[in-house]
Amino acid sequence: MAKAIRYARTGGPEVLEYVEVEVGEPGPGEARVRNHAIGLNFIDVYFRNGLYPAPLPGGLGHEAAGVVEAVGEGVLHVKPGDRVAYAARPNGAYSELRVMPADILVKLPDTIDFETGAAMMLQGLTVQYLFRQTYPLKAGDTILFHAAAGGVGLIACQWARAMGVNLIGTVGSNEKAALAKRHGAAHVINYNTEDVVQRVLEITHGAKVPVVYDSVGKDTFIRSLDCLAPRGLMVSFGNSSGAVPPFALSELVSRGSLYITRPTLATYAAKREDLEAMAADLFQMVSSGQVKIEIHQRFPLADAAQAHSALESRRTTGKTILLPCVP
């Protein structure tokens, strides 16, 4: 038996229950992993509140780091005793021990501890595909990145600085503005006291930006479009303020033949060789010190509901992790 978080209905944080579950032996293509640290991400909220449908009752969580205890038939790339990390479906990372698909596991370098491994996989791989693949950035580019003081944002600020990219970050307070600047943002806009579009125009001398990375959704969508240069790319990769409402394609025409994409990590890392390459890039950035993963909040796994409340109310910065009991 092992402890895990389960939910039987969608709703607020109160639907999360800390229960005992049976964990069996891994079948073909599976591994049993004992989690040492678990990452908290906004996508977990989307599943819990029903924005993203999932079979119920079920578990939550896409991201963790731990040790392989056993593997099933056909699993060759990891073995018992290996330190591993992962960030992908199926849900179920909020657990002390789980049986899971082995093909999403990557070996964790000895230079990276379990807490860092759990804190960086989903958000770090997200920045990897956003910056290297969705819109391949180059030194000298100027970009707009919303929620720059969040978990993804602080990684993005550092990664942009390492690439020589001028990142304009939006935040909701002066404290978060200072945090984003310390992590490498070239410019920071407090959307509660400044006009985002006007500030982007001032910073870029009227040119606007070639790409906007937006994980906020409903509250920032139109402003994001207004910040794009003609033929610019809108990258909508999250909905922390709610889903983007339906809009007319003419909105893209009137602003200069804009492009829009809605990428997901699952698509970019669907092939094993792509996942390995993306993880290697992330591990190099972290091991070299160019990107530091800062864990600002830690909660016991049993207190996952409190962690969700803090995340949704925007009381968190950087990364939040859940800590299971490890024998």
From TrEMBL:
Cofactor: Zn(2+)
Family of this protein: Belongs to the zinc-containing alcohol dehydrogenase family.
PROSITE patterns hit by this protein: ADH_ZINC, QOR_ZETA_CRYSTAL
SUPFAM superfamilies noted in UniProt: GroES-like, NAD(P)-binding Rossmann-fold domains
Record-annotated Enoyl reductase (ER) domain positions: 11-322
Name used for this protein in its record: Quinone oxidoreductase family protein
Domain of life: Bacteria
UniProt KW keywords: Metal-binding, NADP, Oxidoreductase, Zinc
